[in-house]
Amino acid sequence: MKKLKFKKIDAFASGNSSGNPAAVVYLNRLDELSEEEKLRIAKELKGFVSEVGYAAPGTETDYELCYFSSEREVAFCGHATIAILNDLVANNKALHSKRTLSIATRTARLQVENRYRDEKSVYISAPPPGFSTKEVGTAEIAAALNSRLADLDESRPVQIINAGLETLIVSMAGLGSILKVTPELEVLKEFCLQIGADIVLLYSSEVASQGSRYRTRVFAPTFGYLEDPATGSGNSAFGYYLLAQGMWQGEQIKLEQNGFRHAPNFVQLFAQRTDTDEVRVWFGGGAVVKIEGQYNLE
Fold first, then answer.
1. Domains and CATH numbers, the chain
2. Can you tell me the distance from the alpha carbon of 205 to that of 146, in angstroms, rounded to the nearest whole number?
3. Beta strands in the chain, from DSSP E residues, in sequence order
4. d(Cα 14, Cα 9) in Å, to the nearest integer?
5. Angle at CA 204, nearest 5°, toward 142 and 181?
6. Angle at CA 45, nearest 5°, toward 290 and 114?
7. Are 72 and 40 in contact (CB under 8 A)?
């Protein structure tokens, strides 16, 4: 039996919302477990968390991470990264004053801005964006979402952008329109597979909370569950979308996310250059440890 250090950590949790739970398994090396064992743990935790993040000390970076859902490996999982890095910094006094860290994921080497001392939070540089030229019709999107075409804002472009995951970005007509979306998992999954999208992000400029810039909702049926209540990768793709459309200049903004009008989760975004002189979207927030113990893998 393998005995593994295990935590359940809620990323992006706030005073009136529970954030997005991630399971975290700490390893000495990422290859300490096989891919089959990592997937098996994620399958065993289905319904408890949406993804499991695995973390180990890095060779060329401070840490190395990978992620699995109950269905398959996830190329990049923003909320699990937030959970892991918050926990690592909080429990290592030597890291409290270290302003930046580096992590390696399957998709890219990323930077971490450590604001633990001031905010009890960390910010992650998203992977560089990939912009798809694939066109997706609003009528088929509305059908896949189980929504009326009038609930979509056709004045804004639909686009697929990859900031770790292939993200279909769709503008909605208003807060009421985005909150009443109720897709069926299998229908939306089939639609995503047909167009080559991992997740679907809906957004509205009408918000419920003072100080928020946009409301977003993210659906992830290809990973075995319907809605992601707070996400880093999807909102990072949305950040690149906003920059490309001239709808944002890169200053720090707050996004509210999920389907609950008055109890959203909050994700912070800003854009700045990395040490390689690339403009990247950064996403950030805090995290709360809910369960800590040992995972026994037979």
1. 2-128+284-297 (3.10.310.10), 130-268 (3.10.310.10)
2. 21
3. 2-11, 20-26, 51-57, 63-68, 73-74, 100-104, 109-115, 121-125, 130-131, 159-162, 166-171, 199-204, 214-219, 227-228, 253-257, 265-273, 279-285, 287-297
4. 13
5. 40
6. 45
7. no
288 contacts: CB under 8 Å, gap ≥ 6: 9, 10, 13, 19
pLDDT at 274: 72
The DSSP code for 266 is E
Cβ-based neighbours of 98, under 8 Å, separated by 6 or more: 114
Q: Is 30 helix (H, G, I), strand (E, B) or coil?
A: helix
Give helix 185-195 / helix 138-145 axis angle, nearest 10°.
150
Q: DSSP for 81-136?
A: HHHHHHHHHHT-HHHHT--EEEEE-SS-EEEEEEEHHHHSEEEEEPPPPEE-----
Q: What is the mean pLDDT of each run of 10 residues along the chain (298 residues)?
A: 96 81 97 97 95 97 97 96 97 93 94 93 95 97 98 98 97 98 98 98 97 98 95 97 97 96 94 83 95 96
**DSSP state letter for 150:** G
Round to whole Å and give the CA distance between 49 and 215: 23
Q: Is the pTM of this model over 0.85?
A: yes
Return the DSSP state at 174. S
**Residue-wise burial string across 110-146, b where 16 or more C-beta atoms lie within 10 A, e elsewhere:** bbbbbbbeeeebbbbbbbbbeebeeebeeeebbebbe
User: How many of the other CB atoms lie within 10 Å of CB of 109?
Assistant: 16
Q: What is the pLDDT of residue 13?
A: 83
211 φψ region: left (φ > 0), alpha (ψ -120 to 50), beta (else): left
Please state whether 106 falls in left (phi above 0), alpha (psi between -120 and 50) or beta.
Answer: alpha
Question: What was the pLDDT predicted at 211?
Answer: 95
**How far apart are the C-alpha atoms of 213 and 264, rounded to whole Å?**
13
